[in-house]
Specification:
Layout (H helix, E strand, L loop, with lengths): L3 H22 L4 H17 L28 E5 L16 E5 L11 E4 L4 E12 L5 E11 L4 E8 L1 E2 L1 H6 L7 E5 L2 E10 L4 E5 L1 E8 L17 H8 L3 H7 L6 E2 L7 H8 L30 E4 L13 E6 L6 E5 L9 H4 L18 E4 L17 E4 L3 E2 L9 E8 L5 E8 L19 E4 L1
Antiparallel strand pairs: 1-2, 2-11, 3-10, 4-5, 4-9, 5-6, 6-11, 7-10, 8-9, 11-12, 13-14, 14-15, 15-16, 16-18, 17-19, 19-20, 20-21
Helix pairs in contact: 1-2, 4-5
Amino acid sequence: MFGSGDATRLAAGLLTAALFGAAIAWPNAGTRVVERAGELAADTLSRAEGAPMAERLCAIGEPAFSGPFANIDDVLSVSPLGGVTAPGEILPAPYIRINTRSGDKAFERRMTNALAPAKADIVAIERRILRDPYGRALGPSWTVHFRSCEKISFYYDRLDQIDPDLLARVGGLRAFTEVGSPDHLAIKSTLRVNTGDVIGSSDGFDVGLHDLNATPAPMARPERYRTDSFARAEVFDVAPDLLATINLDTARARCAIDYLPRGLKDNWANKLGDSWGIRRAKGENACRAALVDTPGTAQGAWFTDAAHNAATTKVSAIALSPDAIDPDRLIFALHGKLTSLTASLLYPVKTMGAETNSEIPTDFLSFTKGDGRINVPFAEINDHSPYCYQRLRSNFIGPLMNGVILLQRQESKNGQELLKIEARGDVTSCIDLEEPWSFTGNETVFYR
């Protein structure tokens, strides 16, 4: 894009170059020419201050951010990219999560102000109403989208409160548009904020960043993560440009910490770890990567139908990935989509005569990688052989699964990649499975 801001900068550059050329040609007048060049360039650039940040070239060799996301003294830890998301969210997480310290009351976290990390335009604001499984409202959640230059966009998500002045400057909630339901409102904006301005407050929030200069992350099915803003706009009766503004370019998600100036970057990188500050992120690239799809293997996101779009509001998918904190630990993020995995396999009935719990757990399962065909890392499964997983634990500290999981990559008649998974409760160890390993007919089929 070549906008008015770029045109103004180009004019200033050409004018300055011409004046410097004159200084070389007539050295006796050089001092005054140089002074005049600086004056005219500054005056020309100052006129560009009203141009949208999206039309401005990103500074070469300088960090995109100049300030922190919040007061670091309030921050306990920062969850890296690629973490396990909650049901209904894009898999794996394309954002970092800022986890605040304990609050004044037990089991509460400290509230902190979310601060603008750079001079930027707020290009959109969203408000969602969160609800419990019974439909009862839990409260609002705010998302604020920013643009700091032509190639850098970022956003804050899960803010508990929005700054009242910002809300008033966009016309209040009455100016927002419904996006699919009254629980989801959004509005486009041109508000300018400066480094350090308060955006809102929360007891923890997400920070996402997209770098349009970055190479898109390799994904087995990148089209799963794209949305057609015009098609959705027609369904929701919403302006396409609003939907285009709030849609996320997941393939270009990058670690926001890497865009901080060096001093701040080191301080925030030292916070990378789990949500309670117990486990610290390991490895040279502690912030990881947002996406873990490995084409031609079992690693990555798998969907419950052949054409599901991951950017919809409800993700019918699972993720097979390394833990974002410790890559040597692997995760089945099944999100309640594996029908053969009932709660009784994780929480056995201890009372004689009690009914079996047939509910499907939504927690993830974790395990340590093994050898041979048992507990094989998902990125190493590049054939169509069956593999078995044992000693699976609910979350990281929950009970061990009273059974095993059988997994096999297959290919449909039309060449589409399939993944079959079945939880088996008839054995507790893979070596107890009858050879050759096979499914019982209770498996679930997932698609790339």
